[in-house]
Amino acid sequence: MASSDAFYLDFFGLDRRPFTLLPDPGFMFWSPLHKRGYSVLQYGIMSCAPITVLTGEIGAGKTTLIQHLLSEIEDSITVGLISNAQGGRGELLQWVLNALGLPLGNDPSYVQMFQQLQDFLVSEYAEGRRVVLIFDEAQNLTVEGLEEVRMLTNINSNTDELIQLILVGQPELRDLILNPKMRQLTQRVAASFHLERMDEESVENYIRHRMKVAGGTGAEFTERACRQIFQQTKGVPRLVNQFCDFALLYAWTNETKMVDEEIVGQVVKDGVYFGGNSLEREMTI
User: Fold this and answer.
1) Mean pLDDT, all residues of the chain
2) Number of Cβ within a 10 Å radius of residue 15
3) Mean pLDDT of 46-58
4) What is the pLDDT of residues 59-92, one digit of tens each?
5) Residue 207 has what pLDDT?
6) Can you give the three-state secondary structure of the chain, one letter per residue?
7) Range 165-171 average pLDDT
């Protein structure tokens, strides 16, 4: 039996799976939306924006953009990445200190942790370094948590920001920030962008791009197949990946090196792809 890593790879002449669900900057596809989203992230950092916000649907490519940003960020910038931070007062500060590699003493008080962070920021500033904190999945923060995040931007030196925040999350994050209770936080947001789903043309280019990166020709999917995949996935990159992975698997089992309408129809008919069901539920809520 073929190994789980092989399957259709040799059959299509690929050196790796082109449609894994894990974010991989090596497969980065620069759709017009992703280019603009990335430009906003860069602008936020270069302009020393207190808070930059990036939102988008699940699987829209937010994490991939962040990983690409991390790979290109200047050495003079200290970055702390906080994924899925939750908790109340004090707990969030522990996430921050941990992300920056700062040691936590035995049961430190909130004041001690805040002072430790402030001392670190002042020290970095004195050495000509800036600190950027990235909160991924920030929609999971409570209103109280977001307020505590905002309080971090109060640590400054004259007109210079000692710390910059990038909040990344699903569309609910926008709703949280626009809450009237969050007026002070909203005033600190200097740059923001929402990643919409890809259009039909972008989905076709996305599929061909990933096939080429994986060692293929990019012509393994017919134009009509790409159109049907767009209809099934509504342009969500993660769902496109899931569907295309199944499509290649089906083509391999059918011993055909072309994913056409028939292959796409088989994937849909067999019910192995669940993404469309989640989209239907989302649209009826």
Assistant:
1) 88
2) 11
3) 92
4) 888 988 998 999 899 999 999 999 877 766 678 8
5) 97
6) CCCCCCCCHHHHCCCCCCCCCCCCHHHCCCCHHHHHHHHHHHHHHHCCCCEEEEEECCCCCHHHHHHHHHHHCCCCEEEEEEECCCCCCCHHHHHHHHHCCCCCCCCCCHHHHHHHHHHHHHHHHHCCCEEEEEEECHHHCCHHHHHHHHHHCCCEECCEECEEEEEEECCHHHHHHCCHHHHHHHHHEEEEEEECCCCHHHHHHHHHHHHHHCCCCCCCECHHHHHHHHHHHCCCHHHHHHHHHHHHHHHHHCCCCCECHHHHHHHHHHCCCCHHHHHHHHHHC
7) 94
Query: What does the alpha-carbon distance between residue 93 and residue 231 come to, in Å, rounded to a whole number?
Result: 43
Q: Is the pLDDT of residue 281 over 70?
A: no
Spatial CA neighbour of 27 closest among 208, 186, 247: 208
- Is 61 within 8 Å of 197 (Cβ atoms)? no
Cα distance between residue 34 and residue 241, in whole Å: 17
In Å, what is the CA distance from 258 to each residue of 10, 58, 142, 164, 267? 14, 29, 48, 48, 14
Domains of the chain, CATH where assigned: 9-16+198-284 (1.10.8), 32-195 (3.40.50.300)
Q: What is the pLDDT, as a whole number, of residue 158?
A: 61
Question: Looking at residue 92, what is its pLDDT?
Answer: 87
Q: Which residues pair with 133 in a beta bridge?
A: 80, 165
Task: Give the pLDDT band of residue 157 (cuts 50, 70, 90).
Answer: low
Burial status of residue 10 (CB atoms within 10 A of its CB: 0-12, 13-18, 19 or more): exposed
Residue 276 confidence (pLDDT): 54
Nearest-angstrom CA–CA distance, 85 and 116: 19
